[in-house]
Amino acid sequence: MSLYLGIDFGTSGARAAVIDQEMQLCIQVSHRFGSVEPHQWAIHWQDILFSLVQQIPADIRAQIQAIAIDGTSSTVLLCDGAGVPLDAPIFYNDVRAESALADLQAFFVQANLDHAPGQDVVLSATSSLVKLLWWKQQPIYSQARYLLHQADWLAFLLHGQLGISDYHNCLKLGYDVALLDYPSWMSGLDVMPLLPQVRSPGSVVGTIIEAIADQLGLPTHCQICIGTTDSIAAFLASGVTQIGEAVTSLGSTLVLKLLSATPVTNGTYGIYSHRLGDLWLVGGASNTGGAVLEQFFTSQELLDLSSQISVQQESSLQYYPLTQPGDRFPVNDPALRSCLEPRPANPVDFLHGLLESMARIEARGYQLLQELGATPLVQVYTAGGGAKNHAWTAIRNRQLQVPVLVSPHTEAAYGAARLAKGSRE
After folding, report:
1. In the chain, is it the N or the C terminus that has fewer CB atoms within a 10 Å radius of its CB?
2. In which residue ranges of the chain is pLDDT below 70?
């Protein structure tokens, strides 16, 4: 039997999923991150990577034909010529590089590059490029030979080849996913020698290092594939393949991803497009979502009250539920205040108003993506904790006016496994 392994390094832990030729999940294992010193993170990841594989039963490991790894977007390592990290990794949400962001903004102004390819994506204190520019100001930079993303470095531990990445991770490094090349303006930053070669997610780098295969009980012919980001892997897990289909993640926040025939980039609303073969994954994220619900209701209260909502009757309450001021999509207003008034005495009515208002925000988000040029929405799959709320699903179905389905698979590790399987087709 041919099996395929996907490994996901997310924000709180790592997971591994093995699927068969029919995309059936064979086994899934997980490992939460421990509390470690910053300089120990890389070795901690390595230990977890090997531990996850070894948790898989030996008879399953022996049949794994290909492996793909995803990691958190913009989590990066600065490495020497042997791939050894020179500093602690800088995580996806680390904003220490804010001073380098100001330098990059000045660079664009001085070079008269107001609308340079990739500019909207890299102009953030958390982008991979800005983090590299911050490292460039540190003494250790003189020893640096490679800038690698989390998924790049973990895959290197298996295939042994340095300086290779994918165009999903490299989007926030400045890579032009439309032209499949680094844009010419990047040569002015004097960082090109450290940038990875960029390949298609899922393409094969090579076979696993023989000594690592023996250590982990994997076949020596097992292929190691180019990876992706954790959010893209979660999208791939849904199985969406047709343009106009989308995935809404109902977690602490509201994240929309629409498969489109055309890309959309709009810095005003924080919208950018990932390449998926010849198609585009257009995304936007609102700060509304489950975190607001958790301020008012326990999990059991949400379950009990939701069952009492008359879902076919639209709530007249017009809220904009936020945990703190500010939103960027589909309303771009950093000072936007949360609107939760008037609050009815009946908690069922209050919850109905919250869910209805979030569904309106979601519908407006998809409408905005289409107004900016994305393919019209035809169907939505749902991931995240909110997917389990049947009342919310019914309300969203009415507001979106397209079928709303629950994704059969939502784990990023399953999506990474699909990526590995695709390398053999």
Report:
1. C
2. 423-425
